[in-house]
UniProtKB/TrEMBL annotation:
Residues 30-62 are annotated as: Disordered. NCBIfam families: SCO0930_lipo (NF040526). Keywords: Lipoprotein, Signal. Residues 1-21 form the signal peptide. It comes from the Bacteria. This is SCO0930 family lipoprotein. The keyword Membrane does not apply. InterPro entries: Lipoprotein_repeat, SCO0930-like. The keyword Ligase does not apply. Residues 30-45 have a biased composition (Polar residues).
Amino acid sequence: MEKRRHIAYAGVSVAMVLLTAACGSGEDNTAGSANVQPAGGSQTVGAGASASPGAGAGAAAGDIGAGAGDEATRTGPAKRLTVEKNAELGSFVTDSEGWTLYRFDEDTPKPAKSACNDDCATKWPAVPADDATATAGIDSGALGSVTRSDGSKQLTLAGWPVYRFAGDTEPGDTKGQGVGGTWNALAPDGKPAGKAAATDDSLQLMVRNDAELGKVIVDGDGMTVYRFDKDSAWPMKTGCLGACLDTWKPVKAVDTTKVAGVDAAKVTSFKRPDGTRQAAFDCWLLYTFTGDEKPGDINGQGVKGTWFAVTDKGKKAGR
C-alpha cells in the first residue's frame, strides 16, 4: 500500500512538471505579464450586439453606491461631449452634465459590438447614440453608433461602445475606473484613460462575439484567427508550409500586454522554419485566412475539416 502511494505521488509530480513546460517545445514561448491595457480603433459603426457579459461584467456588479443622481441625465443622450482632466486619469470624456463616460474591455471596436447586456447594462447604462456632438479635443468623425441586442442604438467613440456607471453618485465622479479590471474612463481618442494608457498603441489580439460561433479571437485589425489540425501543440510544430502559406498567413508574435479578453499567460510565440516568430494561444499556432475580406468574416471556419476559428479558451470554435 505504501509503495503504491509513493508511485501515485511520483505520477502527480511528473504530470505537474509536464504541465508547466512551455508547450512541450524548446523554443522561447514565454508569455509576458497580463497587464492588459487595450486601445480603441477607428471603426465608428458596426453590426448588432451579441453575447452576455463576461467575467469583467460580473466583477462590475459589486459596490454600487446609494443616491444614483438624476436618472434622466444618467440614461439620456450625452449631448455635448467634453474633455475633462484630473491628476489620476489625465484627459477623459464626460457628457454635457459632467457624468464620466466609460468603455468595456470585453467589447470590440472592429466591428463595434457591446458585450454588456441584461444585469450588466443596469449597472453600466448604455449611452444613446442620438443627440451627441463633440467639443474641442474630440474628433467628431470618431463618433458613431452600434445596434444593441435590444435593437437600441448606442453611442460609440472610435468604435468603442460608450457607457455611464450607476456607481457614480454625482457629476465628476470616476468610481467606475478600473472596476473588474475591464472598465475604464474614456480618453478623447477612445483609449482607456489613465497614465498606463499613455504608452498604449493598439490591441494585437482581442475577442469578438460572433453570432454563429460565440467568442472567437481576432487580431488587431479585427480579422478572425484560426488554428490548423495538422499543427501540433505538444510539442509545438507547424504543418502549414509552402503553398499553404499563400492562403493561411501566420499571425506575427504579439505583445502580451496588448491583448484583451484572453488569458495573456497563454499567449506565446513560435519560431518558424524561416526564422520568423508566429503567435500562439494555448500552444496552438494562429493564422488569418486570405478568404476573409473584412473584420467579422469567418470564411475559414471548417475549411477542409482542418481549419477552425479559435475560441477565447483556445478551443476549436463550433465544436
